[in-house]
Amino acid sequence: MMATAMAATGAERAVLEEEFRWLLHSEVHAVLKQLQDILKEASLRFTLPGSGTESPAKQENFILGSCGEVGVQCILDQPAVSQQWEEQPMAGRGASGRSRLTLTCCSTDQVKGVLTLQGDALSQADVNLKMPRNNQLLHLAFREDKQWKLQQIQDARNHVSQAIYLLAHRDESYQFKTGAEVLKLMDAVMLQLTRARNRLTTPATLTLPEIAASGLTRMFAPTLPSDLLVNVYINLNKLCLTVYQLHALQPNSTKNFRPAGGAVLHSPGAMFEWGSQRLEVSHVHKVECVIPWLNDALVYFTVSLQLCQQLKDKH
Question: What is the DSSP string of 103-143?
Fold first, then answer.
């Protein structure tokens, strides 16, 4: 009887080992192929059509709710995304881009204007700001020879490229030998995808002196007035533009001076020291616009992370 039981146990073990070998070879590679396809689609959202390709422009209208003191309408002008995918190198953007987004912000309130996002860079800005104190109209525009890189988009794209690179080196001819090897690969891919998602969902918390020292302040012609600060960032699937109006605190001011710490968005009353002056934020104007392809990318990240976790759970 014991011999029969041992034989049955041996047979069961053989069946389990065969099932595990099938899982390592067939199911793992099926999931990896699915992951590559999803991430290639995500990668498309971060690139622009190559030079020499023309796509019909697609225009969509988006109504933005009030953000701080601004309520705007945004027009998105985006060429259709090419379905052809090319792997991009980690470093640099390449000689040409793949799509062009124009964000048009129109408002009868304090702010109106146009921002043009091309790939991972703001290539143009044309913004009018009505100063609350005297209703003077102030025009802000980028210098023609300057572009402002959105590091969040560039970093997210690079992390996606790295995840694709990891998966591409485990094609169908590769034989996984252990479950631990699959887990190690999934952990590495999930790390890149989590970093990509976090770059879009977690804007940097900056102090007001850090915003003042940013190269963005030197992008404008004419030069940005000394009583204005501008910040641009990505938050989830939105491009956000914030304008801070400042006033100097007099040396004999009775206000308790407390420098503000880092924040994504500072409030009126926030104070800081810049050079020999103590300054306070008097007004904050914020506008944001949903960028559909960023929303697509975030969905692809979530689906990919779920697939990775499901594969890990089987090993």
Answer: EEEE-SSSEEEEEEEETTEEEEEEEEEE-TTT--EEEEEB-
